[in-house]
Specification:
about 270 residues, mainly beta, 13-stranded mixed sheet, two-stranded antiparallel sheet, 17 strands
């Protein structure tokens, strides 16, 4: 089931993150906007203003809620975006090497359901290695393709040794049940609380679509403080999840997708190798 551009919103938040060191990966893959590295996912040391997805603390107000959130209003390289016209290029596929997760450390943090990942799982892009730190979910999908959102989106959050962040993103469309993700859906905590260790085995390699081509662009965190410099890799091919699996997450988090942001002068590159 495709979810149209019109947002479902709810009073749901996510943890903030802090800015880190400068870095770049290559104009071909990320366009001409320029890149600034950020550290992810470090919890901000100071207490910041509460925010939500509606009303007086909703997305239109994020930039005014806290000085640290200014980029949410004035940033020109924000995420998520609607992927329409792209620049085609022959790019080397993202090299992914994810280890089995067992046991699984999972948490309902009140904003999403997140699984933390021990060191050892990596992806490599243009010779830069990024370690997988955690993965989490959004509903509906935060990114759109030609104006359409999918039922959910899975963000696999990485960080390099130089504190540069990259997100490997998978659009989840409603269809057949997803066996690889079932251990996660089956153990999602219904209530907010501390991290739980579950005695199950999860294979992140099995999350990935058969075709590894990606859209690539330079963006930002999709939650306050909306820091820019995040390298986004969005698989072109969606992965299916069942209506029942979608319902499990939506019973916990009804909607936690930021509205689409202007692309401005950025370029989205589409991998057309082969």
């Amino acid at each position: 089931m495709v979810v149209e551009i019109e947002e479902k919103r709810k009073n749901v938040g996510r943890r903030g993150f802090v800015a880190g060191s400068a870095a770049g990966i290559g104009a071909l893959a990320f366009g001409a906007a320029g890149l600034r590295g950020i550290a992810w996912p470090e919890v901000m040391a100071q207490e910041n203003a509460e925010w939500s997805y509606e009303g007086e603390t909703g997305p239109e107000e994020w930039g005014s809620l806290d000085d640290d959130y200014a980029s949410c209003s004035v940033g020109e390289n924000q995420s998520p975006v609607d992927i329409g016209e792209t620049a085609e290029a022959d790019l080397v596929d993202v090299e992914v090497n994810f280890a089995l997760i067992s046991p699984m450390s999972i948490v309902n943090n009140g904003h999403t359901v997140e699984v933390s990942v021990e060191p050892g799982s990596t992806m490599v892009v243009d010779g830069v290695e990024y370690g997988l730190v955690q993965f989490h979910f959004h509903t509906p999908s935060e990114h759109a393709v030609n104006g359409e959102r999918q039922a959910m989106e899975l963000h696999m959050v990485h960080k390099s040794a130089d504190d540069v962040s990259a997100v490997l993103s998978i659009l989840l469309r409603e269809g057949a049940g997803n066996e690889a993700l079932e251990p996660v859906f089956a153990n999602m905590p219904a209530e907010e609380g501390p991290e739980q260790e579950i005695d199950v085995e999860v294979d992140p390699m099995a999350f990935l679509p058969e075709t590894r081509k990606t859209y690539r662009y330079s963006g930002s965190l999709t939650t306050p403080p909306c820091s820019e410099g995040v390298h986004w890799f969005l698989f072109i091919e969606p992965v299916e999840v069942s209506a029942e699996q979608v319902a499990v997450f939506q019973a916990i988090v009804d909607a936690n997708a930021r509205p689409l942001q202007p692309l401005n002068d950025r370029e989205v590159t589409e991998d057309t190798t082969g």
